Structures are given as structure tokens and as C-alpha cells.
Automatic annotation (TrEMBL):
It comes from Lentzea tibetensis. GO terms for cellular component: plasma membrane. Residues 21-306 form the ABC transmembrane type-1 domain. InterPro entries: AAA+_ATPase (IPR003593), ABC1_TM_dom (IPR011527), ABC1_TM_sf (IPR036640), ABC_transporter-like_ATP-bd (IPR003439), ABC_transporter-like_CS (IPR017871), P-loop_NTPase (IPR027417), Type_1_exporter (IPR039421). Signal peptide: none annotated. PROSITE patterns: ABC_TM1F, ABC_TRANSPORTER_1, ABC_TRANSPORTER_2. Residues 338-586 form the ABC transporter domain. This is ABC transporter ATP-binding protein. GO terms for molecular function: ABC-type transporter activity; ATP binding; ATP hydrolysis activity; ATPase-coupled lipid transmembrane transporter activity. Pfam families: ABC_tran (PF00005). It is a multi-pass membrane protein. Its main location: membrane.
Amino acid sequence: MHGSALAAIRLTWRAARAGTLVTVAIAALSGAAVPVAGWLAKLLIDEVARGGDVDKAVALAVVATLAGTVAGVLTYVGSYVTARVQRSVSLHVQDELCATTNSLIGLRYFENPAFHDRVRLAAQAAHGAPGTVTDFGLEVVRKVFTIAGFLGAMLAIWPFMALLLLIAAIPAFVAQLMIARRNVEMIEAMTSTMRRQSYYQMLITEGDAAKEVRLFGLGDLFRSRMRSTLAETTGAELAVRRRSTITEAGFAVLNAAVAAVGTAVVVVGAIRGTVTLGDVSLFIAAVASLQGAFTSLIMQFARVTEALRLFRHYVDLVGSTSDMADGTRPVSALRKGIELRDVWFRYDEDGPWVLRGVTCTIPFGATVGLVGANGAGKSTLVKLLCRLYDPDRGTIHWDGVDIRELTVAQLRERIAAVFQDYMSYDLSAAENIGIGSLPDLDDRAKIRSSAQLVDIDEKISGLANGYDTLISRMFIDPFGGGGGGVNFSGGQWQRLAIARSLMRTDADLLIMDEPSAGLDATAEHRLGTTLRERRAGRTSLLISHRLNTMRDADVIVVLSGGRIAEQGSHDELMAADGEYSGLFRLQAEHYQDDRVVLP
Ligand SMILES: Nc1ncnc2c1ncn2[C@@H]1O[C@H](COP(=O)(O)OP(=O)(O)OP(=O)(O)O)[C@@H](O)[C@H]1O
């Protein structure tokens, strides 16, 4: 808890030093202004009651008004400065969360629901906690001045009242801490449900699912699920809120009873002439202010404990070690090849093995084709080569060095890949291609030449704003005169993805996972030629279910159930009459037609 509090304070300090200092100063001044106004009011009433000096009474009235005005103005200025500090903290937190997520080397965390719950809790807590802790700190500063200012008056008029107020505050303190604990438990328990609610909402409101939602009539189904998850979280929130309202109302009654006792005692004293009228006014103001100060401090303290319990998720997340250890050895250009030695892999500790002892070589300068049925483990192998996961057993070697020893960023710089589930970015055409090689993001000539290789240059050049056109209907195109951008067809998006990978002209390893799945026959043919040229002198791994694209691979590896079933050249595998030859013949059969005369 102390650690979390310090972390929250440090975070606020790092995010907004000057703002924090100004807020503390304003809090001290506005805290002091309240008792000053109370004392001035007492002096004024006593002056009037004893029929004293008019000038003095007027001066007191003016100063009391001024003190009230200053306190009022400080409240507004204080809330503006506090808002500024909170914005800075939010920015800082958002940035730090993104940096933490970016620093994860692999994909394991992204597939863990508990990680996503924690990210959500961390984001929520980190936005609130620093503000809550600083608010509490400021409230303490303010209230210390208020309490100090009024306590003297109370002790002078009826000291027992101070004890009474303290005793009345103890049960409120305990109850608020219990409410805070329950609230944290509720938030932690509801995070998963809240994420599901956001998911259903996204399915309904965002474009990706809109087609299927309409075709299959899923709108009402998702809407009712959204409503039931929302009802669940709202119900849990309201249950906690109900308890806290009942508790707070109970303590308000207790406070009123204590104040009534105190007022009665002092009023009797005034009637008997043991205290002045000014003392009565000061006493009443002191009781109200001290009760207000205690209640506010207790509530804020409870909010702080609540916020800090949740803030633990942020501290743990930001301070957590990465999912995989980065290597330290620099990566030099590939010279011999890549070797997989008895690689075993599964996604979950208790899940089925996806790769079961894969041993094979991707020789330098060769093109290796990887084929196999759905779920055979082809894409998994690609992810292991890019070190998005590490093998559970066995090793992968880059020119004889275990890739876990290599600096992962350098390793990835040497790989150009098109994943089977490539991304379609809501960015401009130029950016969609250029981000394949960030240093060349502004190199329009290089971007165009990548686009030309996959025959998409003409299409992009013909768009209203050429390469600057936004390829998205989600956002307003900054160059589009207030309208949205354009959308591409599936095959056109795939061409963009291939062009993106081709930006890495210096890559040693070219990986293409189903690069032509969405391409028309002409484009597939031309892509085959382009890739052949690009592959010359380079090492490549090609995955495709269209076996005709594999014919000119130097080696074809057939994966089956996570094991290598067979490997060899096309001719060797056809002669072996095994799984590959069976699949090849099956596909070839569908292309045979007596009317097609082969040259
Ligand atoms: N992120 C994941 N978490 C858990 N299991 C996964 C994950 N990705 C893939 N799998 C499982 O691993 C197995 C191999 O999947 P992989 O994507 O490597 O197959 P593939 O050979 O590329 O198939 P396809 O030809 O359909 O693309 C499948 O049974 C799949 O269910």
C-alpha cells in the first residue's frame, strides 16, 4: 500500500511538477481562508453586540468579505490547476501503458485474458489513483489549516465537544474503509464482464462485423448480451453504492445529533452570559467545519485506499518483466541458413502439442516451401521463426546461433514477412506500405516501387489524393474534403500487405504465409514472378495451399500433425508418392479439361 502510494505520488510529480506545487499552495491558502473568515465573523458580531467602534466594525466586515472572496476565487483557480495536473497524469499513464505493452517481445500475454483484465484495471486505476492521492494530500493540507483554525476556538468555548466529534468520527472511518474494500472487490470481479460488454458493443457499433451482423441477423443477440452484461455490472455497482448511501446517511444523522448537543450547551452558556454571541457564531461555524473536515478526510482516505488497491495492478504491470528475455548478441547477415532442431511447441502448458519435434533446415539462398493441412502448424512455425514465441523444447538457429541469444529487434529487422492474418491499417496508402520499413516511411519512390511489384501502383495513383489517400472508411480523410477515405477489396489489401513486406529490401529471410490467397489468377502469376526475382540470392519460406506455387521451391517440407511427414524437391516428393503427391494430384485433377491445350 505504501509502495503504491509512493508510486502514485511519484507519478504525479513526474507528470506535472509545477502544477503540483501550485495546487499545494492553493490548498493551503484556501484551507486557511475558512477559519480566518470564521474568526473575523466572530470579532464582527462581538463588536456589533457590544455597540463598539463603527469604523472597526466596517473594516472587519470588509476584511471578512475579502477573505470569503479570496477563498471562493482560490477554489476555482485550484480546480483548474488540479484539472491540468490530472490531464498531464492521464497522458503520462497512457503513454507508459503503451510503452509497457510495446516492450513485450512475444505474443503470450496478448492471448491471456487475465492480462487483458489487468491492462484494463491498470488503465482505469492509473487514471484515477494519482488524482485521488493528490486530492487527499491537498485535502489534508486544507483541512489541517481549517482544523487548526477552529480547534482553538472549540477548546476555548467547550473543549469536550472536540472529543465528542472525534469519537463520532471513528465508526464512520471503519465503515468507509469496509465500503472501499468491497468496491475494489466488485471492480476486480466485474472487469471481465465489463470487457465483454465493450466487445458486444464494438460488434454492434464498429464496421468490421457489420456485414455478418446484418446477414445473420445478429444485432439483437449482441444487443441483449450487451444489455445483460451491462445490467450485471450496473447491479454490482449499485449494490455497493446502496450500502454506502445507507452508511453515510446514518453518519449524517449521528453528526447532526452531536452538533445539536454542542449547540444546545453553548446557547445555554450564552443565555447565562458565560460566552458571548460571537462565541456562539464561532462555535457553530467550528462544529460545522470540523465535522465537514473529518467527514471529508475520512471519505477521501477511503477513496485513497480503494484507488491504491487498484493502482497495484498498474504498478505490477508497468514493473513486470517481459514475457521473454531479449538476447544480447548482434545479428549479422545470414550466411549459412536457419536450422530447427527438434522443436516442440504448444500454446498452453496443458494444451496439445502443435509442433512435435520438427527438425529441418532452411539453407541460405534457398526457397523452402511449407505445406500441410489446416492446423498442421505452419503459421505456428513462422511465429517461432520471428521469435513471437519460444519453443518449449528444442532450438532454432540463425547461422548456428540460438535465436534466443540474438537481439530480437535486430533479428526481426532481417525478416520480411506477410502473415496469413496480415493487418489492414486505417492509414494512408503510402503509410500502409511505408511502415514495412520505418526509415523509408517518407521515401515515396521506394514505396511506389514496392507497390509496382504487386501491381497496385496504378490503382493507388488513380485515387483522388494518390498515395496520401486514406484507405479507411472509419476516419475522415484529412485530404478528402471532409469525407471518409476509400476502401479496398480483399485482394487489394493483400497486395498492400505484400508491398509492405517488400519494403524490406535488405531482409535476409522472406516469409510469405499464403501470400496469394486473395489474389486473382493474373495477380498470382505476376506475384510468383516477382517473388522469384526477389528471392534470388535470398532465403525464403513460402507457405501455400496452392501447390502449383510450390513447384519451384528448392525444398518442400510437408507438415502433418506437427511433425515433418516428408521433405524433398517437387520431383522427389511426386516420385515418393506420399502425402504431397496425393494433395498435388487432387488439386491438378480439378484443372484438367480436354479443351485446354497445353503448349
Ligand atoms: N494463438 C493460439 N492459441 C492457441 N492455439 C492456437 C493458436 N494459434 C493456433 N493454434 C492452434 O495451433 C494449431 C496449428 O495452427 P496453425 O495456425 O499453425 O496451423 P496452420 O498449419 O497454419 O493452418 P492453416 O493452414 O489453417 O493456416 C491449430 O490446431 C490451432 O488451433
